[in-house]
Amino acid sequence: MSAMSARAGSFALGNRSASRSAGRCRKAGRPVGRRVSTVVRAAAKPRDDQPENWELKYLYDGGCTVCNSLVKLLKSKKGHEKIWFEDISDPKYSPDKNEGITFEEAMATIHVIKSKDAEVMTGMQALTALYEITGLGWLFKLAKLPVLSSAAEIAYKVVSKNRQAMGGAADGLLALGRINMEEKGEGSCTDLEGECREKPPPVDEEAEEAARAAEERRAKIAAEKEAEATKTGGGPTSVKKNPAATSKGGLENAAREKPPTTSGSLSDCRNILGVYDMRRSKSDERALRAAPVDTETGELIDELITIPLDDTELSTVAAALTSIIKHFAWQGNVGIALPAIRVDTTEEAVNETMDSFDDEIRNMSSSMIAMEDGYAAEKLVTSGKYEEMEKQRIEEKRKREKALKAKSGSARLNAPLASQSAEISTAADSRQSRLEVENYLKNAVGRDVVVMSGPEATGYGEMNFRAEKLATGTTVCVCLGKTAGIALFDNGILAHNPADVERQLATYNYPRWSNAELPREENTPTEEQWKRWADRVEHYLMRIEAVAKPDNFIIAGRASATFTYWSKYVTNVKTPFFNAEQGMNAAVLGAGKGASEILTLRRDTARVRAAIGHAKGLSPQKLDEEQLSAVFDELDEDNSGRLSLEELTVGINRLNVKLTEEEIKELFIEMDYEDTGDINKREFIAWWKDSIGSSGVEIIHTMNEYEQVLDDAEGTDQLTVLMVGVTYCKPCKAFSKKYQDFADRFNGARFIKVFGNENKDMTVLCRDELKVKSTPTFYFFRNKEQVHMHTGANAGKFEKFILANVREGEPGYGSERQFEDPVEDPKKGQKRASPVR
Length: 837
What we know:
With 837 residues, the protein is of the alpha/beta class. Helices cover 41% and strands 13% of the residues. The chain is built from 29 helices and 22 strands. The strands form five sheets. Strands 5, 6, 7, 8, 9 and 10 form a six-stranded mixed sheet that branches. It has a five-stranded mixed sheet with strand order 13-12-11-14-15. The protein is globular.
C-alpha cells in the first residue's frame, strides 16, 4: 500500500462517517426498540414562493455564489416577477415537480422551464429567455464583440472565486461572462478550480445517539449471556442460548466461542447484519426483520427489530435498510434476503417434467392451466377460454417489458431499478440481475451488501445452526406459505437451482390448489383442511423429488409452525423431510451466514481472477472472450471441453493461489451454472464476465475492494483512474456524467470512484492512505504506482492530464481535445508579500 500513498495534504473528514443515508431515508422510520414504525409524513404545504403569473422557472444552485449573483441581478430588473426561482440545493427539491430534472442534471448546465407548455430549456436558450424577460437582452450584443468576449470569459472565471469580496460590482461581469461560457457549452457553475467549497454537514445527533444506544444494548446482551453461562455452570465463555433470539426452536451453541460485541467492519466476515424481507403474519404486507449476527456461533449480538415497508419497491427497501443500519450504528457488511420472483405458469414450465397423475390428463391440452384434474380444467379447454386468457397474459407481459425498457437510464441510483419490486430470481442464470440489485443497495447505503433469496437465507440458517444435523448429500430447503421457494445445498454449499427444478415452482399455484391454502391454527381447521393442504405439499415435493433426487428436505416458512398437524398425511414422498428448527429467525441468521460465505467466495474468486490476469499480463477486466477461451483450454487438461473439480484444483494450485478443498468446491459449484457436475466453456466465460462486471465506472465501498483493484493492476501496465469525492460535494456530483464519458472514451483504463465520508473504510483510505485535502481529487496509477494527481472538477484539466498519461495503442491516445484548458487563477501559487517595516 505504501506505493499507493498519494502525495497530497490532509483530508479533514474527522470521525464523521457521514452517511448518504440521512437524506435518503424518507420512507422508513427511525428504529426505536424492538418494533419500528414508519414515520407518518404530513401533507405537503402549498408553495408560498410561487409567483402568481410566472412564465419561467429558473433552477439555480443556492450554494453557488455565481448563481446567487445572477439571481440577484435578475431580481433587480423589471420583469423578475415573472420568474420563479427554484433552489436545487434545497433538501425539499423534487425532480418530480420539475419535469424530472435531477440535481446532477441541473448542476451540469442552466435549466429553465416554461409555464405555458412545460418546455425545458437549457444552456444558451435558457439564459436568453431569462435575460430577455428582464430586459437584459442587450448583453448578448456586447458578448459578441471579440475583445469583450474573451475578457468577459476570463473575468467570469476569476470573479466567480472572489464574488463575495467584490460585492455587487461583480454582477454585470458575471452575467456577461456567463453568456460566453454557455456558448462554449461550459455551463457548470462550479468555481475556477472545480473544487468543493462546501462545509461538511453538521454532525448527525440522531446517528450518534443511536450508536451510543446500540453499544449499550450489545454490552448488556453480552453480559446477560455471560451471566447465564456462569449460572448454568458452563463458565464465562460457554454460551448455550441466545437471549436475543425468540424462535421456538432456540439456538444450541455448546462449546462455541463467545461472540464479541461489535458494530462490525467491512473487513469483518464474521459479524454480519442479517436482514430478511418477509411477509408479515396475517397479511400480505412486507417488512424487514433484522439483527447483527455472529456467523460463527449463530448468535444475535443485538436486538431483533422489524420495520414495516410502505410498498415493495427497491427504493423503499433501500430506505428501510438505511434506517436499520443507522439504528444499529452498523459499520460492517450486510446480508439481505429478498423474496424470490414467482415463476410464471407457462406451458414450458410443466412440459419438461410430469408426474403420474399429470400424465393422465396431458393430452387434454398443451396448456399448463389445462393440466388440472377435474371439471375446472375440462371447462377451460372446451370453452375456448384458455386461448383468450393466454393471449391476454402474453399481451400484459409484453406491455410490462416495454414499459420497463422505456424507463431505462444510467443514473447512479437509476429510476427503473429503484421502482422495480424488490424480488430476485433463484434461477441459475439470474446472477447478473442479482448483481444489479446488490450494486443499487450498496450505493444507497454505503456498505457491502450481499443479496440472496429468502429460501437461500433460510437454508443457510438451518444447514449451519440446527441442532439435528442432516446427513451429507443434497438438501433442498423448501419454504411454504402463501408462496413457495426452494434452495439446493450440496453438502452444505449453496448450489444453483437447475432449470428443471426451478420449473416446479410454477406447479405450487396450480388452479387445483385454490381451495388448499395453508390453514391458520387460530381458525381451528378441520382434519379435511389439513389433508387438503398436505395433498398440495405432497404434490409439490414429489415433483422436486423426481427431478432433483435430494437426500433431505427441510420444510421452512409459515408451514413449519404447523408441521405436526399436516406432515402425518404426507405419505408418498420417499425422501426424508424435516421441520425447520430456527423458526422465523432462520432467514435472519442465514442472511448473515450466507453473506459471510459469499463474501469469502468472492474474495477467493478475485484472487483466482487476478492470478489468471497476471499470468496473461493483462488486467482481468481486459481479457476478451478469445483470451478466456484460451485460459479454459489450458485448464482443460484432457481436452474434453469440460472442466472437472480435479482439473480446476490443479489449475488453481498451478497459479499459486492457496485455497482449501472446501473453498475450491464452492468456487466449482459457483461456476457450474447448469448444475451438471462439470464446467463447460460457456459457463466459464459467463462466470468470468459476471464476476468482473460491465460498468464503465466502478464505485467501491471497502478497503478490500480497493486493494483488489491494485492487485488486479499489478504487472499488467494498465492505467487506473481513481476519483475521490464526498457525498455533499456539488462539483463531484456535477462532474459525474463527464467522468463516465471519459471512462467510455478511454476504455482501456479502469475508472473507479470512492466517497471519503461513506463509511469507516473509505474515511481511513482517503484521510490516512491517500491523504486527500480537497474534493474531487483524481489519481492516476500504472500498475500499483501513482503517476499523477490533481484536484478540481474541471473537464479541460482532466482531459489534458489523461491525454498526457495514456500511451500509444491505448484507446483515446492522441484523440482531439474536446475541452479547453482551464484559465489559471492569477492568485494561485502567489506568495503573500512580506509587510514593509
